[in-house]
Amino acid sequence: MTRTTLLEVKNIGKSFPGVRALDDVCFSVREGSVHVLCGENGAGKSTLMKIINGLYQPDSGETFIRGQKVTIDSPIKAGELGISMIFQELNYTPEMTIEESLFVGRWPKKRFGQIDWKTIRTRTLELLQQENLAYDPETKLKDLSISNLQMLEILKAISRDADIIIMDEPTSSITNKEIEILFEKINDLRSRGKAIVYISHKMDEIFRIADDISILRDGRVVETRPKEQFDIDSVIALMVGRALDHGYPKEEVPRGDIVLEVENFSGPTGFDNISFNARKGEIVGFAGLVGAGRSEVMRALFGLDEHWHGSVKVHGVPVKIRSVQDSIKNGVVMLSEDRRRYGIVQVRDVKENVTLASMGEFFHGGRLHGAKERNRVEEICAKINVKMASIDVQVSTLSGGNQQKVVLSKWMLRNPDILILDEPTRGIDVGAKVEIYKLMTALVKEGKSIIVVSSELPELIGMCDRMYVMAGGRITGELARPDFSQETIMRYAMNMLKRAS
Amino acid sequence: MGNLITREKWQTIKSRYSIYLVLIVMIVACNLLNENFLSSRNIANISAQISVTTILAFGETLLIIGGLLDLSCGSVLALAGVMSVYIYKETGSLPVAFGVGLLFGVACNYINGILVWTFTIPAFIATLAMMTVARGVALLFTRGQNIYQISDYVWFGQGQIGFVPIPVIFMVIVGILTWYILGHTSFGRSLYAVGGNEEAARASGINIGRIKIGAYLINGAFVGLAGILMMSRTNVGAPNSGQGYEFEALTAAIIGGTSFSGGLGTAGGTLAGAFIVGFLNNIMNLTGVDSYLQQVIKGAIIALAVGYDMWAKMNRTKKTLGAARIPNEPKEAKK
């Protein structure tokens, strides 16, 4: 029996400034089937789903629903066409009740415009019974677990007669038991003829739930096949299998003593028993999937978050880190992954942003030495090649790459020994990326040490001397440069090495 | 590129100096409406009239830049003022009375700072509480009675050096202090950063608590001084004085371009804002505008000033973003 294709996109292309996010993507899903879309971070999964859900407009390509060509220009239109999306990060109003939220935005009205609560109650109860869920319609959303909220989103999709349900990494924050409940529901939906697009990079799930698998890499669909024609190894190989860029400006630098030694580092933000070190002149990478706890370790190490216990030695001397001031004093600085939040003060000018962390150098007895400040800022910005009209322009007017260079300039001005770079090239264009790689090389040549957290494997493989891989808040592997391979790293990152070997 | 610089510079100049332009236009207009307006006596009068609220406005400017706020300044002014007057009557010493006035301002604002930083109470609520408490303490202490016959104490508010009233001199000193703190000290720099993006300031190693409490302490000294001037200008230690002054002060700061989202504002802007309000009041009085109508006009001007500021800011971001991106992008892409 052939099933009708409910949703089909053809030749979709989408560019963002400096990035080709999607390139000639074709993708379809049939009724009564689950189509898994997998790929690395930044492969374009979310962009594709946002296009299908009407949040982004594609630059090129066509969309068909049940064979009819459609234009989806907003999430509301997507909803009308029977598409419903369940986001990874659920947004909800904590004080709303289940019944309110189920019908939000389309509450049935009585004659004079009052909301018809009676109808809402009856329909909610019908729906709950039909889906076999024992919820009280008056429960507030803040009292529900994430998996319950997810279930509610699915319920909402059903109540809207959605035929196409998109789930973006739905299991990323729920327990194993809850995953079982979710999968039961998905199987139920499949048997009722719904089409489900399931985004994930967890291998065990993918093979349990999929009918078809598509693999997205660098904005292209590299393979679409029924599940039976794949195995775990082939999926991983296809996910990472891009030819390595040889364009990384990596130079071997003689390495010195251990300058940073972290032991048994644990903290409340979700990392446990982390031990690692970095040598003088070394670039140490931290690989792992989003949510593996890499940024959390670095934030705690830098004093932005608390840690419970663990020892940190800088140049062999034990140090206590209670605040950012402590780390900076020890010569450890961090470029945060969230540039807007932790990096720049948007409304102030470049000069003030650059000297923010080293004001002691320009203020003597509380008095500003303006000329000295200007000279130093201009010097450092020229070295790092920040493109701007002058150092007096607001940082918010610069492009992402240049904002990132402003943050780098801020830290370079402190002349630190150890730099932690958390996703240093996220959201910036290729030219600026290469400049940042060059700067990294120049810095280790000067005898500094760099710890780099990145979700772009080629970048880590291209630039690092040594690499740690994290999964689930722990270090699962350590690799030296000769042993770098995308397959091995991905296995460690999925914590699957034992099973594979 | 040349085009870009002039355009950005023009945007910066426009946003930075538009308030002074408004002030000049206003002076010219007022002068046309009434020939006595620019007489040195009228100007000295206006300056003395606005001195108390302007000193409060400088304090608010510091706080708003740091993402904070003080609703209690009107009440703390009364408390600091009556305490200072009381001490003067007890000791007969002007310096001691002066010191006590400042001390009470600083102490109340130290509590504000602690509430905001240590107990993480939003500044709006913490200082709202202080507003009620300080007023209550002032009334309790004086049993609700004014303190009369304050003899030489009036010098602070009514004395003159040459033709310049003493309160105006204090106002100028506080203005210069504010300008210096904001533009020339690491404390001022940190304050802008804390108000502009607290998390980024923290991630740059700035001690947020010190900056926030510090801002309240400076504000406290300003409020204490304002209290002394207020009492001495009106010849009486009045526990009920200064009601609603917090809003007068906020008005001057906001018209002067201090952004309520934090991180933006200058001492000069606030001074200009205070004079704009002062001139407006004066010219409306001189031309006999109905006093109820005056309130309507003042309110409308606040809405206009802030509305224009927001609109200009939005436009500016659009324009500069458009201008800054175009010359940058192709260059980077070529590499």
Task: Give structural notes.
The complex is a heterodimer of chains A (501) and B (335). Chain A is of the alpha/beta class and 501 residues long. Chain A is built from 18 helices and 22 strands. Chain B is an all-alpha fold and 335 residues long. Chain B has a two-stranded antiparallel sheet with strand order 1-2. In chain B, helix 2 packs across helix 12, helix 4 runs antiparallel to helix 5 and helix 8 crosses helix 10. Chains A and B meet through helix 10, helix 11, strand 18, helix 14 and helix 15 of A and helix 1, helix 8, helix 9 and helix 13 of B.
Outline the fold blueprint:
The complex is a heterodimer of chains A (501) and B (335).
Chain A: E1 5-16, E2 19-30, E3 33-38, H1 45-52, E4 60-65, E5 68-70, H2 75-80, E6 83-86, H3 98-102, H4 117-130, H5 146-159, E7 164-168, H6 176-191, E8 195-199, H7 203-209, E9 212-217, E10 220-226, H8 232-240, E11 258-267, E12 271-279, E13 283-288, H9 294-302, E14 309-314, E15 317-319, H10 324-329, E16 332-335, H11 339-343, H12 350-354, E17 363-364, E18 367-368, H13 370-384, H14 400-412, E19 418-422, H15 430-445, E20 449-453, H16 457-463, E21 466-471, E22 474-480, H17 486-493, H18 497-500
Parallel strand pairs in A: 3-8, 3-9, 6-7, 7-8, 13-20, 13-21, 16-19, 19-20
Antiparallel strand pairs in A: 1-2, 1-4, 4-5, 9-10, 11-12, 11-14, 14-15, 17-18, 21-22
Helix pairs in contact in A: 13-14
Chain B: H1 2-33, H2 40-65, H3 73-91, H4 94-117, H5 123-142, H6 155-158, E1 160-161, E2 164-165, H7 166-184, H8 186-196, H9 198-203, H10 208-234, H11 245-255, H12 267-286, H13 291-334
Summary, kept brief:
The complex is a heterodimer of chains A (501) and B (335). By secondary structure, chain A is an alpha/beta fold.
Largest interface pair: A-B, 50 and 43 residues
Largest sheet of chain A: 6 strands, mixed
- Approximately what portion of the residues of chain B adopt beta-strand conformation? under 5%
User: Number of DSSP helices of chain A?
Assistant: 18
Give a quick account of the main beta sheet of chain B: strands, pairing sense, barrel closure: 2 strands, antiparallel
State Rg of chain A: 25 Å
- Any idea what the shape of chain B is? globular
Number of strands of chain A: 22
Task: Return the structural class of chain A.
Answer: alpha/beta
Strand order of the largest sheet of chain A: 6-7-8-3-9-10
Please bin the fraction of helical residues of chain B.
Answer: over 70%
> Could you list the spans of chain A in which at least 5 consecutive residues all have pLDDT below 50?
none
The helix content of chain A is 25-40%
The averaged pLDDT of chain B comes out at 88
Q: Low-confidence parts of chain B lasting 5 or more residues at pLDDT below 50?
A: 319-335
Question: Numbering strands along the chain, what is their spatial order in the largest sheet of chain B?
Answer: 1-2
Number of strands of chain B: 2
